[in-house]
Amino acid sequence: MTVNSDTQRRQARLSWIFVGLLFVLCGALGLLQYRWIGEVSVAARDRMRASLQAGLERVSRDFQSEINTACRAIAPEDPKPEPAEFAAQVGERYAAWKAAGQAVQLVRGVGVVTREGDRLVLRLPDADGKFLPAAWPAEWKGTQQFLEGVILREDRGARGGGPPPDESTTFEVPVFIMPGPPGFGPGPGRGGFGDRGGPRRGSAWMVFDLNRKYVMESALPELLQRHLGAAASQEYLFAVTLHEAPSQMLYTSDPGPASSVAANADAEVDLLAIPPDMLRPRGRGGRGFGPDGFRMTGGGRWELWVRHRAGSLETVVERTRQRNLAVTGGVLLLILASAAALIRFSRRAQRLAELQMNFVAGVSHELRTPLTVINTAAYNLQSSVNRSPEQVAKYGALIRQESGRLKEMVEQVLSFAGSQAGSITRDVQPLAIEDIIEASLESSRTVIEGAHFAVEKEVAPDLPLIAGDARALQHAIQNLLTNAVKYGKGERNWIGIRARLDPDGSQPRIEIRVADRGPGIPADEQRQIFDPFYRGKRAVQDQIHGTGLGLTLVKEIVLAHRGAIAVHSQPEKGTEFVLRLPVAPKEFQDEFANSASRG
Ligand code: ADP
User: pTM of this prediction?
Assistant: First the structure.
């Protein structure tokens, strides 16, 4: 070992401290981020709600302004006190307004109601646009009841009070009632709308029959789009209800679930307020609708409710919050995973560097030993002291043996370099596995016999061919045989080599097993023995020659043939390497059989 164990321990401790710090930092960041995202979400929700509310206020303002414009256009500026004259004035202005074509769709019709004695007289335009007394249309029933209720109440009030009229009868939906303008009144005691003589009741009303379909389906959606953005209808549900009876739905943008819009609304605004300057008697404050005591609770007869389609703004914000949290969590996890991967890779790189250093040290030693032997033998041969034929033969054999070891080592290193460059298989041909095994045994014969190993070979007959590089495969099997000799010494020096058709494989493969009855490979080493330059503890301790590249090359060669390799080893029972190589495609086999029969 060139890297001392203290340095290694220090490095390991440092990397664990780093990982720990990273975990703590990521945890703290995650916590902070969680809290910030929560705060940002609350702020975002408040902002969205405020902006929605502001948008609705603008919608209400614009809608009101359209209605006010229409009311002002039709209401006479200098009203005549006589009901018929007043109605004629309204008629003229209504005709002029229609002719000007301004927002005509907004109002379906206009009526004038005057109090004449104890009666309410309704005047509606005839075919020529003249406002003449007419019967109350059926759909204005509620308005009629409302106005009559007011008068009745007034009369009752004059006689000492009484219950207010039933408000539920007043909810005539499409009809917008505007009290008569200031200055109108049939004479003393029945003065105009509070302009003279103190708080008197009005006695004329203009009735605007709003075009509800147009208002709900065109005017309002257009205003919503203008003030809440182009995607308003895709984002929000809308509903319009009567102010006094929110359960009475006048309009919903979507049927079904939209009916609950009013119950869970994100924002709400009043619509259809009476123009304040026309509504409020001079000299008096407060809001009211028509006569005293009949006040509206809000600023308008209608209420517009808006709810986000997701359920509520809270839900939208909560979803965004969860998405943000998920992204943040993902990023933190990614950072941790990257750090873990980085540490893993750097440790592997460090281990590889250590192995390479060990390899250099080991190879230098491995090279020096045979070179020293060769050098000494050559020196002895050269000196004339001892030149008996036996001695010459002995030195010659020594030189051959040691140069053979050198050659083997150099070949192993060169093959490894070739495998890294991707040129481990060069000449792929149809091969009979028995030939490969035979050639491997032959080239390992000296080593096997020198160590007094018995070989038991068992090759199934008629095995299909494989497509492969004969030299590479022979090299692989030879490495396994040499390893069995080097590390498989036991009570019985035995090597078993078997080949058969793989019984388990889903695809046809040939299985080659090389086994020994040696001391086996410790379980913790089994994962590493295929790593380049790795040498087992026992190999190092017992100074068994090797480079740590033999099994790496076997693995590379098998993988280059699209095969698989496994090791089974039990302490004191022995080791078995199993190679599985796919058989050559059928056309390959047929072609070979034909050429063999021709040959
Ligand atoms: P080398 O033989 O040069 O050390 P290898 O890559 O061939 O390199 O083998 C790696 C390690 O695997 C060896 O150092 C040894 O510890 C272990 N090993 C290989 N074959 C056997 C075997 N048949 N029995 C026990 N250990 C083995």
Answer: 0.52
